[in-house]
Input
Amino acid sequence: MHSPTLSSSAVKEAAAAVGFDACGIAAATPLSEEEWGYAEWLRNGYHADMAYMEQYRDLRADPSLLLPGAQSVIVLLLGYKPSCLMEGPARIAQYAYGEDYHERIKRMLFQLIAAIQLQHPDFQAKPCVDTVPISDKQWALRAGLGWIGRNTLLVNPTLGSYCNIGELVTASPADHYDTPLSNRCADCHACVDACPNHAITHTAHTHIPLLDATRCASYHTIENRAETLPPHIRLSGYAFGCDCCQLVCPYNRQAAVRYTLTPERKAQLEALAEADPAAFRRFTKHSALNRIRHSQWRRNQDS
Ligand code: SF4
Ligand code: SF4
Output
């Protein structure tokens, strides 16, 4: 099928009209270990028991294995900084306050495809939001949307690290590709110092930031399915995820609010602390909290 050449500016206009906060486009050439550090991350066992991270390594590095003939990766950011923080005994990572970002971003990616097809009826793309093995942060970096901060997350100059990432992988070339921003962490180490578990590290020689999931509260509260958690892992009151390394980031402090936490939603989230399994399932159906079971939710609160 004919793959039309995309106007980069027209795609970005369409992305903004759909509601994305930022859009960048990268050429779909394979990622190298030097820019990525993925092999070293795996070699060090920093993926803990997430065996699925060892799978599809070739696909993670090369989008043309996800979509034959891939020419471009269109990367979209959606900010989630909430209007206020939830405190209390069962803290939840801020990205999970609102609707499940997988559902929201997927819907928006299909809207963007439809918008581009108004100009180019032959346009086709594979939408990706966590469910496809693709390295979101690296493609966002390539697409000029930020840098990989010492907190190991993408840091966008406007949204900070409070943003979720989605991609469209397409066989269409673009008339312009974005280039990576330089790293602006400078001599700040606030996130490294704030981590209660010393989970933030880096590659030995190239100093690419790496997260040691075996030490990370976010990994343990979400991915670890064991009946009990290692006693030395400090959860800082979180029962889902952990934001300690993000709360201190100067780029996050100055980021614009992108989600209004209504009194109704706040009350729903507060009620979760005592929810029984059925109520928990009902509420989390359209929430990022659906990644964990009620038994994990209880375990995390008791840890
Ligand atoms: S999420 Fe929490 S435990 Fe994990 S690296 Fe950040 S501060 Fe450390
Ligand atoms: S807290 Fe400082 S070092 Fe960490 S990501 Fe933010 S700017 Fe970079």
In short: The pocket of iron/sulfur cluster (ligand 1) is lined by residues 195, 197, 199-200, 211, 216-218, 242, 244-245 (CB under 6 Å).
